[in-house]
Structures are given as structure tokens and as C-alpha cells.
Design brief:
The protein is α/β, with parallel strands linked by helices. The chain has 13 helices and 19 strands.
Amino acid sequence: MLKPNYDIAKDRSKTKINYLDVDNEIKKIYDGKKYFLKTYGCQMNVHDSEQISSYLEMLGFARTEELANADIVVLNTCAIRENAHDKVFGYLGRCKHLKKEKKDLIIILMGCMAGQVDVVEDIEKNHKYVDIVIGPNNIFDLPKLLMEKLDKQNILVHSNSDIVPENIIYKRDSDICAWVNVMFGCDKFCTYCIVPFTRGRERSRKMECILNECKALVDSGYKEITLLGQNVNAYGKDLNLGYDFATLLENVAKLGIPRLRFVTSHPWDFTDKMIDVISKYDNIMPYIHLPIQSGSNRILKKMNRRYTKEEYITLFNKMKEKIPGVAITTDIIVGFPSETEEDFQETLDIVNYCKYDGAYTFIYSERKGTASSFMKDDVSQEEKENRLHRLNELVNKYSKESNEKLLNKVVKVLLIGESEKDKEKLYGYTETMKLVNVSCDKKEIGNIVSVNITDAKSFSLDGNIIK
């Protein structure tokens, strides 16, 4: 087995890569074969999978949704939570079993888990049936590595975090909504977070390249663009070119896309200028995801979040005051090392104050190599689960109250596709990112329509289209 190649991308440009240089010989070999792609984790991973699909289909692969039919299996992984880590290894077990039946099956591990040194070492030692391991910053090496795989060698590639990829070809999952990466990595080093170690430090794309990509999407008829970054509002800080995320956001809004969104924001980098730009443009959706993580200043300091709860509340109030009708959601971790009942009560106090439209809530899980992994994990699993249950009850209460405010009101909804639970209905999202199931003709998919809300639940709305 080859040793991890830490220098694989040193000869590549840091700002531009030729993604169309695919050997015709390898196309002949893989043409007509099928690939199975499973994605774990955040929106960034979903967007990375669009890039992975484009490369595989350029090589001649066709996608299959059935694992048993695959000639190549790609797991695009997440390393943020322990349960995601466990799910991947559980699925690898299924792949191992399938490989016993299909000797030529190629198994590829990609994404953030593939950027962790300890995971790569474990794969090399204990999971030799995995053929290729590629970290999240080296997706562009996939065609080359598949060609090298023809020599029947197992290949490990660690991420090279210096590269800022441009001119990427995507096999987009939707012709209505599109993701656009504006930056990669994160510099915040929150003590519980593995992202700086798997995706590297913050690297921003050039604004002209982002605008060109967005302009092409507008010209192609897309209705919504979401600008992506692990810490999207830190955009531009590393470039020192005189522009920031507020500048980028305004310039994309001016392109005329009907709906513009962004995720995810760090409160430390959220400026008054950003708030002013959001309030200025009707096509920048009044929805902000603003993670708090904890309501205790003591725990926030241990998390290295760089703000106090008082500073967070000040920012929250500015958004509510200056952005009409804004919806704000958040992330919260319970059971962080040394968290007391008093600390947890302060988190509940924040939720009671902010009355979030929704929240992603998590039990703390240790990520090897992060600063918090050296702290004593002294909150019992029973107490963690108890706190999560109490938190979710409160979050769900306010989520439902927020939805109920829309009862018998007319809202604009971008219809995305058929509802999973009821094929007779379409689903879509309001400007404030609330899920709506609508009774209407399927020809309305891709349209922004007026919907009268007839029922409100904790996590979704029902309504009828108004002509």
C-alpha cells in the first residue's frame, strides 16, 4: 500500500486548476460502469458531492441508487459528530461484504473523515479493502487517482489545505437552487471543532470568480443561490484586497438572482455592514443561521467562541430591529466538559429570550485532536440526554409558535419538488426558510408562488396556492 502523499498538490496553481483534463483512455475503461455516492454531513459536503458526481460522469460512470449495482462506491463523509463517524464505519462494513461478491468493486472514502490522520491510519491498518482515501481539499485528484488505481494499488491522499480551487465543474442536483462555495476552511479553532484540521485554514475565492459563477447560474434560470463557507462571513479577510463578505453579498444580489442566502455565520465576524446590506436588498432572504452553542459565558470561553452571551444578544437584537421579518436559527451543544446545571439553565434562558425559529441541537462528542479532547468529559451520558430532551422541548415550542404566526397568512414559497410524505403535494420554502407543503399542480415546480397557510406544525407548514 502506498504511504500517504502529503505533497501531491504542490505543483498545482493555488488559484486555478484545469478540471477538464481527463485522460480518454480512462474514459474507455470506466464508460458504462455505475457509481454509488452516499453523502454525510453539512451543505458543504452536499455541494462537494456535486463536484464528485461531475468527475465520475466525465469518466463515463452512470449513477445508481442501489449499492448492490455499483462498480464504485464513494462515501463522502462528515467528522463533526461521533455518530456520523460511527455510521460511516458501519456502512463500510456493508461495502466490505459486497466486495467479497464483486472483487473489482472500488471503495473510496472522501470528505472530512478522510482528512483526519488517525482515520487514515486506521483505514491503512484495519480496513485494507478501502481502495482510495481522499481528503476534502483534494477532490480534484479523483480522476487521476482512479487511473492510478488501475495498477491495483490502494491509495491514500491527505488534504492539501493551501489550494483555492476555481473553474470547478459541478453535476448539480437541482436546476432551481444552487450552492456556491465562497471560501474554504476555518480559522476560529473552537475547542470542540475538527473543521480546521480536516478542511484547513480560511481561504477565500477571488470575488470575480464567484460573481462569474453566480452570473452563469442567473443566466441559466436558477431561482436561488446559497453562498457557502464554514465561516462564510469571514470571507475576504485572507485576501487583503479591500472587500469583505458584505461587499460580495451586495454584488451577488445585484446580479438579479430572485433569492440569495448564505450559511454558516460566526457571530464574531457578523458586522453592521452585513446587516445593512441584508436589509437593503429584497432578494437577500431574511433568514440567518447564527450559532450560539451555549448560553453560559464560562462555557463559551472554554469553547473559544470569542463572544459573550451579552454580545450575542446585542447582535441578535440588531438583526431583529434592522431586518424586517427576519428568522433566526441556531446551533446548541449540551454536555460540554464541565457544563453544570447552572450553565445549562443559562442556555435555556438564551432560548427563552431569542425564541428561535429553529435550532440544531447536539450532545457533545469528543473529536480526537481538538482542544476539548484534552478536557475531562465529566458530564454523564444520562445527564447529556436529559438536557438535550429538555432543550428540544423548548426549541420545538418556539418553532411551533413561530410557524403558527403564519396561519391564514399569504407567503411567498419557492416550490422545489414533490413532498416525500405525500406525492400529491409539492414542497418548498418561504423567504424565512420555513418548509411548506402545498397542494398544487406539479407544473409549478421551480416557481415562486403565493401560498395561503392553512396548518402549522413544529417543523412544517401546509398551504394552498393562490392564483
